[in-house]
Request: fold
Amino acid sequence: MNNNILHGKEILLRAPEPEDLELLYQWENDTEIWNISETLSPISRYILKKYLENSHKDIFETKQVRFIIQSADGSIPLGTIDLFNFDPFHKRAGVGILIADKSQRNKGFAKDALKLLISYCREILKLHQLFCNISSENTASIELFQKMGFTISGTKKKWNWNGRHFTDEHFLQLIL
Reply:
């Protein structure tokens, strides 16, 4: 792993760049994914620009970090993978992942990104565990995280409103 880019088999993880503003604006304001990201309102270009201006800050200061998932040749940005609620004392962090273009899902990109992130968390951040929260209806994500060693350690009953009914949410953990 070099300092700027994490290289995987099919993808690379890189820091967000100012040039990503329009792409992030599009992804963050896609109402089809708001239910998985717990977003309730649009995010402005101004806020995203400020985020990008501060994205160089250390995870120990901001308690989060976002990587852009990009094709291995660097030509196609595919989505994001985030660490959030970083807790250096308890050595844990939450994980969120998005492959934005539906046509690029189920091709192994998310698995490769998660594998790289787990390695980064283990080797660089020296974390003890990772966690995530996934809707019980999102079976593809649950299967992905379970393939990578995460286990369901709890279920929050009727936790999220999806616009039609309440759904359960699973809490998954990976002890590193």
